[in-house]
Amino acid sequence: MSYPEQVIPVILCGGSGTRLWPLSRAGLPKQFIALVGKKTLFQDAILRSQAIANSNIEIASMLVVTNEDHRFLALDQLGEIAEGSSRPCIQAQFILEPTGKNTAPALTLAAMAALDISANSGNTDPILLVTPADQTVQDLQSFVSAIQSAVAKAKEGSIVVMGIKATHAETGYGYIKQAGDSGRFGEYAVEQFVEKPTEAWAKEYLASGQYSWNSGIFVLKASVWLQALCEFRSDIYLACERAYQNKTGDRTASGAFFIRPDQEDFKQIPSESIDYAVIEKCPNSNHPIAMVPLNAGWNDLGTWDAVWQVSTADSEGNVTQGDVLLIDSKNSLVQASSRLVSIVGVEDLVVVETADAVLVANRKKSQDVKAIVSKLQQKGREEKNLHRKVNRPWGWYDSVDEGERFKVKRIQVKPGASLSLQMHHHRAEHWIVVKGVAEITNDNQVINLQENQSTYIPQGQIHRLANPGTEPLEIIEVQTGAYLAEDDIVRFEDMYGRKEG
Fold this sequence. Notes:
By secondary structure, the protein is α/β, with parallel strands linked by helices.
C-alpha cells in the first residue's frame, strides 16, 4: 500500500521590495500588499502551495520564514484567508529571523524544522516546496500541474528548479540552460546557471531556445538540501545548526508556533542566496538537478512596470487603482491611496500616491526607484521604512497631524487586543473614543469609556488601552510634550512579547 508523499511548503517572506516604493516599505514590504487582485502576494503564495494536494501529495504544516518585526502581520494575513469562507485553518510554524541573512540560511533553518515536523508524524524526509512570498501566478492549474511533476522528480532525490519560458531578452533575471530531451516528469537536465546577463547575451539566450528564467521556486527533499549545503557551504550549515539547536519557541493564542533561532548564533551565519550557495554548483556534481518548466503566467513583480504588465488595463493601456481620473493618457499605471489623483496628456508613466509620499516615474525606468530609497536612507528619512499608517500586533495607528509640541493619531485596536502597560517620560496623552468601548488603565484606576467620552494620561503615568469588545475600537489620541518620537516608551507588560518599539 502506497502512502501520499508529505510536502511541506516553505514560504520565504523576508524581502523588502524597495523598487515598489512608496507602497512597499521596510515596515510593510510588497509581499504583504494586494498589488494584483484582492489578496496579498503572501496570501496568494500560501493558497497556491495548498492547492497542489492530491491523492499522492499530502500538505503538512507550513513553514513561513520571516522577519521578527513582521511576525504578527504574517499571522494576521494567514488568519484572514479562512475568514468568510469554508476553508479550514491552515497550520503554520513561523521561523523568525532577527535580521535578514538572504535565502540560503532561511531554507537551511526551514529544512531543519521540517525534519522535526516530519519526525513527529513518522515521516523521515519530507519534500519541501520552497517559494518566495512576493511573486504572482495567473494560471493556478498550470502551476499545480508543474509543481506536482516536480514533487515526483524530487522524490527520486533530485533538486528541482522551476523554469520560466523566456519571452524577451530580460537582463534582470538569472537563466537556466537545459540539456537534452525531457524526462518522464517533463523535466530537463540542467547544464548551467547564468546570472543576470548583458542585453546582448540575453538576446542570444532567447534566440537559442535552450534557456529559461530562474523563478526562485525549488522542490527538493530536506535532507538533499542539507547534504548539498554541507558539501558546498559547510560554514553556513554549521552556523545555522548552532542557531537552530539553541532556538527558543512560543505558541500564540491562535495556535501558531514561533521558532526563534538563537540571536547571537544567528549573527554569525554568513549571508548568501540559495542559488550562489548550492544551486549553481550542482550541474556536473554529485547532486542531481533538474528543471521543470513552469508556464503559468509567473512574474516576480520586481518593478512597477511588472505590476502594470500583469494587471488588467483599459482600452488605452492604463492600469488604475483608487480614486483616479485620466484625460488623454496612455499605457500608464496610477495608484491612489488617500486622495484623488488626476493625470492629463501623459504616456508610459507610473504615479503612486500614498498619504505621505508620491512617486512619479517613467514606467520603463521604474526599476531605478530603488535609487530613491537609497537617498531616503542617506538622509535618514522615515518614509523609507514606515507609512503614515503603521501596523501593530494590536491593530494600527495613523499619524494624521503634528506640529510643535503636539501630534494627533487615529488608533484602531482589534477586538480582544491590548496595547502594552507603559509609560512616557516626555509626553502626556488625551484619548477620545470615537467607536467601540475602551478599557483604560490610568495609574491604579481601570475605567470603561464609550463613544464621545475621553480621558487624560499625564506625563510619566503608567497606563494601558485595551478593547474588551467584539468590534474594533477607535480612538483619537492627542499627544503633547517636548519630545513625541515613538521611542519614548517604557514597557512593563506586553501580551506580544515586545520590549520596545
